[in-house]
Write a structure and sequence with these properties.
two-stranded antiparallel sheet; WH_DNA-bd_sf; WH-like_DNA-bd_sf; mainly alpha; Arc Repressor Mutant, subunit A; single chain
Length: about 190
């Protein structure tokens, strides 16, 4: 099981505050809506849900009406759980830590051929362009849901953050490619003289 930072508890409470859910539906929701800024594994989700029930922050019920013949445990938040979530939401967020392996590789770039770094940057650009497209797709979905009187304004804001972050990372990579390419030409001219 992955180390639980303590935030998993509040992720689960926030998900349950939206509606009663199974561990599986929570995992899928996180993968779809939060993957650009947060991950939770099944190894974190299920023990956390059990702990929420033990602490009285959630309740569980066996749903044998799932249609697949297997019972599913559905979790719901309690009033105590809502208070716990509210108390956490009021606290100042911890400082975010950025971890991008590509930035490490670029910073040590003098140890490898520029073509290798350019290839890494091309892949990074494609990945970020896809992520921008995905986030814009979520924004459009949230707008359609709003037309059906389902308010996803706050989820739309997290997707919008994804658009800005991934656009900035893509733009950085394009600029980095230009600088590395120009440096390669300069280095070649220096060695040739």
């Amino acid at each position: 099981m992955k180390e639980n930072t303590g935030i998993s508890k509040y992720v689960m409470l926030g998900m349950l505050a939206r509606m009663p859910q199974t561990g599986y539906t929570i995992k899928k929701w996180i993968e779809n809506e939060y993957s650009h800024f947060w991950q939770e594994s099944f190894g974190q989700i299920y023990p956390t849900l059990k702990k929420l029930v033990a602490e009285g922050l959630a309740v569980s019920s066996d749903n044998t009406q799932s249609g697949n013949g297997r019972g599913q445990i559905v979790y719901s938040i309690t009033d105590t759980g809502r208070k716990e979530l509210s108390d956490w939401l009021r606290k100042e967020p911890k400082i975010e830590k950025l971890r991008y392996e590509i930035l490490l590789k670029i910073s040590f770039g003098e140890n490898i051929e520029p073509e290798v770094l350019l290839g890494h940057l091309d892949s990074f650009i494609r990945r970020n362009e896809k992520l921008v497209k995905d986030m814009n797709g979520y924004i459009e979905l949230f707008k359609k849901l709003k037309e059906q009187d389902i308010d996803c304004s706050y989820s739309q804001l997290t997707a919008l953050c994804g658009v800005y972050v991934y656009s900035a990372m893509r733009d950085w990579a394009i600029e980095a490619k230009k600088i590395i390419s120009e440096k390669g030409v300069d280095d070649h001219e220096t060695k040739g003289s």
